[in-house]
Amino acid sequence: MLLLKKKTLAFSLAAILLLPTAAYGQSNEGSNADIRDCIPQFIQFLEYLGIHWEEGNVPEMDEAIPQSEIAREMLAQVNQKRRQAGLSELKLSQKLTKVATVKAEDMRDQGYFSHTSPNYGSPFDMMKEFGINYTTAGENIAKGQKSVETVMADWMNSEGHRANILNKNFTHLGVGYCTDASGNTYWIQMFIGE
Known about the structure:
Structural class: alpha+beta
Strand order of the largest sheet: 1-3-4-2
Radius of gyration: 20 Å
Distance between the termini: 23 Å
């Protein structure tokens, strides 16, 4: 999950706004029109980094930016499978995605592959520690797949993983993903029913 703080965003905006004039040896003392002309470039740059928001709905600087492309892709594929099974769609939970991301990074950093973390315990303990309320919950983990499509295919070909994806009692999904220095991938799906 990508987070921007006020100073980071302000610095990024300043850098993007100043780059065009600095690159051509022009003064930074351009008109307001020059700055306005750079705003689309700044937004395009942020979108390249995976930061998206709807026009006119710029997030608060200290709030999490909307979910990454991987989380959106994962949600779309999960919901496609659920629709095919006649089930209601899941909603992407930002809070649950944060927990799932921490779990993926914990597996990478602590060198384990298990539902039970040496730091946080079971996924259910972890959710409670992070303030996630639920009536029912589940977790899918995977390692090594290079795309959302591949990991989803592997999970759907596994009875236990498929059962989580198609659990009629789940309402929300959290998606965790990270890589290590060698390019190994770590994938987490956390599900809750409220």
